[in-house]
Backbone:
């Protein structure tokens, strides 16, 4: 919850109803719509549900379960969340929300055994891309070049590390700060797909390619 | 919320915290775990989050958006939810929950213009299968015959209507009442996949087959 809207009536109402301080809340358009009008880039914000679906999709794939996928979340405020291998995030939004609030407060989530499960650090998108050091950075966007999922996933084949960048916001496009770091950017459908659908399809095709399955036909 | 546990402390607590009557709540293991011990088949229940993810996955696909997919939910208590073509359910769990509570109370959700968006009716799994009248009823289960997603989706090709049945519960298998209605049952992964991942993969392969794309390689 950004400080400058913590005193807005819609935030205060939500706070008294839930017993949570504004500093312990995720900005959420479902509750704080009225307060969000004051925020810059407000159309890109307040949608933790989109991040929840996107993470759930990626972390439920055999690719991730086999340790062949690293997952990062970069936020509008230049925070970078690093997800540990084999992490499962809760499907219950109530539990997910609690986890994310803890992460933003403590900057780390550890297992009972002390292993780091999620970590929050300051970092621009450029610095994240540098740290990852991928051979290719591929953007997925309706504004990209039309291609098939199979071909886009195929970019990952034959190179060590390929990063796929998917926007976790309800509409619009990547910011200039993100775009300048992207290599090719592709669109994989005539429809504007939800982030989680793009993730499901790209990762499934990556798995097929790893198994040596190729497509033939009207692509 | 089943009547016989509406008086349990964990349900009463949740009720006083949210201001909702037990009759206006969805049974949810995140909140009502202690109360659920008294319920038969409790391990299969109280997971509206799984249904939320599964619906979101199906309703976000181009296949559904193009009107080539009908979606039904059959519940453990023999209720059948029929989803209207082109329906979008909210990604926000808070909003989804409100919608489902309204549906269980009013048995129908209509748009402002009076169009039916969701309908709840009494009905066994057998009666649902009869009503749909599909040419094939294909089950997806870790207990099924190992196959590829591509081959399983291929069953839908060349017949008028094919139904895919996916379990929306956290573990275990279809009940006998469901199993007796299934034609072939397949497993599409060495991993026990989440319902939403199975849905994403089957529907994506159905789309590819409709576009005339086939696989070749090590399947």
Residues:
């Amino acid at each position: 919850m950004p400080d400058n809207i913590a005193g807005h009536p819609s935030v205060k109402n939500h706070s008294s109803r839930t017993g949570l301080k504004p500093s312990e809340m995720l900005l959420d358009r479902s509750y704080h719509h009225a307060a969000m009008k004051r925020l810059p880039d407000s159309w890109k914000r307040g949608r933790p549900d989109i991040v929840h679906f996107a993470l759930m999709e990626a972390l439920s794939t055999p690719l991730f379960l086999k340790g062949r996928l690293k997952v990062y979340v970069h936020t509008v405020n230049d925070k970078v969340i690093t997800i540990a291998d084999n992490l499962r995030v809760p499907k219950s939004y109530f539990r997910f929300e609690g986890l994310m609030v803890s992460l933003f407060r403590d900057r780390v989530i550890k297992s009972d055994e002390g292993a780091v499960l999620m970590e929050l650090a300051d970092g621009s998108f450029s610095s994240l891309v540098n740290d990852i050091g991928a051979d290719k950075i591929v953007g997925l966007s309706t504004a990209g070049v039309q291609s098939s999922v199979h071909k886009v996933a195929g970019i990952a084949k034959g190179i060590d590390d390929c990063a796929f960048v998917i926007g976790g916001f309800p509409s619009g496009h990547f910011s200039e700060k993100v775009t300048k770091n992207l290599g090719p950017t592709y669109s994989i459908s005539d429809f504007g797909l939800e982030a989680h659908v793009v993730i499901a399809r790209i990762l499934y095709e990556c798995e097929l390619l790893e198994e040596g399955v190729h497509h033939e036909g009207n692509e």
About this structure: Chain B has a mean pLDDT of 94. DSSP finds nine helices and eight strands in chain B. The longest strand of chain B covers residues 136-146. Chain B touches chain A through 42 residues (CB under 8 Å).
